C-alpha cells in the first residue's frame, strides 16, 4: 500500500525485525543489496537454498539480500520461524530471484521518506491523528474461512491481539484517523468489528494448500473505517 500510494511522509512499522532491517538496508545501500541478490540468482539451486537458509550473515546488505532471496524462492512466499527464531520454510518451485520490475533505486528513494520502526502496532497507531491514514494487514488466524480459529501463527498474532487491534482502531477513529484493514472473512472477525462497520468481502487466490490442484479462490474481509 505504501509503495502504491507513494506518500511524502509515512511510518512503516512491523514486529518482524528482519523485514524492517531489509527496508533500512535497501534505503541506505540499495546498490549492495541489488548486487548481492543478483549473485544469489546465479547460485540458486535446491542445495544452495538450504545452505543459504542456514547462514547468519554479519553484514546488513547480505542479510537483506538473503531475506529477499528466501522469500522469493521458498514455499508459497511464507515467512515462518522455529522456536529458536530461525527461518524454516522449505524451498518452493519458483526460481526467479531477480524480478523484471525490481527498481531498487526508486524503492530506496521512496523509503527515504518513511520512518522505519520495529514496533507493536498499538504503539505506532497511538500516534495517528486527524487526517492520517492507517493501513493494517495482520496475520490471519484461520486456515479456512469456514473453520474456527486455530493455532496457525498463534505466537505471532493471537486472538487477544485481534481484540487489541480492534480497540486501537476504535481509539484512532475517535481521534479522526481513517483506517483500512484486511482480515479473515470469518464470523468471529465480523462480530468483533460489528460496532465499527461491515466488511467488503473480496476474493483472492488461496495458496495455503500444499497441493496446487486443491488451491482455489477464497475470500477476505476489507474494512474501510
- The percentage of residues in β strands lies in 15-25%
Query: What is the arithmetic mean of pLDDT?
Result: 90
Q: What is the ordering of alpha helices and beta strands?
A: HEHHHHEHEHEHEE
Low-confidence stretches: 149-154
Q: How large is the radius of gyration?
A: 19 Å
Structural class: alpha/beta
Largest sheet: 4 strands, mixed
Q: What overall geometry do the principal axes of the alpha carbons give?
A: globular
* Helical content class: 25-40%
Question: How widely separated are the two ends?
Answer: 16 Å
Tally of strands: 6
Helix count, DSSP H or I runs of 4 or more residues? 8
User: Strands across the major sheet, in which order?
Assistant: 3-4-6-5
Short description:
The protein is an alpha/beta fold and 225 residues long.
Report on the structure:
This protein has eight helices and six strands. The chain has 225 residues and is of the alpha/beta class. The protein is globular, with a radius of gyration of 19 Å. It starts with a helix and ends with a strand. 39% of the residues lie in helices and 16% in strands.
Amino acid at each position: 500500500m505504501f509503495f502504491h500510494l507513494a506518500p511524502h511522509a509515512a511510518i512503516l512499522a512491523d514486529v518482524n525485525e528482519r523485514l524492517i532491517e531489509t527496508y533500512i538496508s535497501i534505503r541506505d545501500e540499495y546498490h549492495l543489496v541489488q548486487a548481492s541478490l543478483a549473485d544469489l540468482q546465479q547460485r540458486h539451486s535446491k542445495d544452495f537454498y538450504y545452505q543459504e537458509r542456514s547462514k547468519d550473515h554479519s553484514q546488513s546488505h547480505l542479510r537483506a539480500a538473503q531475506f529477499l532471496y528466501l522469500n522469493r524462492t521458498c514455499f508459497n512466499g511464507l515467512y515462518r520461524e522455529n522456536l529458536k527464531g530461525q527461518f524454516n520454510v522449505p524451498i518452493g518451485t519458483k526460481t526467479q530471484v531477480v524480478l523484471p520490475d525490481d527498481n531498487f533505486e526508486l524503492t530506496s528513494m521512496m523509503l527515504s521518506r518513511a520512518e522505519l520502526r520495529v514496533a507493536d502496532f498499538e504503539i505506532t497507531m497511538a500516534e495517528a491523528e486527524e487526517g492520517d491514514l492507517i493501513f493494517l494487514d495482520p496475520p490471519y488466524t484461520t486456515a479456512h474461512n469456514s473453520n474456527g480459529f486455530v493455532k496457525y501463527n498463534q505466537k505471532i498474532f493471537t486472538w487477544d491481539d485481534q481484540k487489541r487491534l480492534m480497540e486501537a482502531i476504535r481509539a484512532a477513529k475517535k481521534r479522526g484517523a481513517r483506517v483500512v484493514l484486511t482480515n479473515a472473512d470469518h464470523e468471529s472477525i465480523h462480530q468483533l468489528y460489528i460496532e465499527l462497520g461491515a466488511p467488503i468481502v473480496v476474493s483472492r487466490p488461496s495458496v495455503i494448500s500444499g497441493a496446487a490442484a486443491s488451491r482455489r479462490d477464497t475470500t477476505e474481509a476489507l474494512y474501510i473505517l
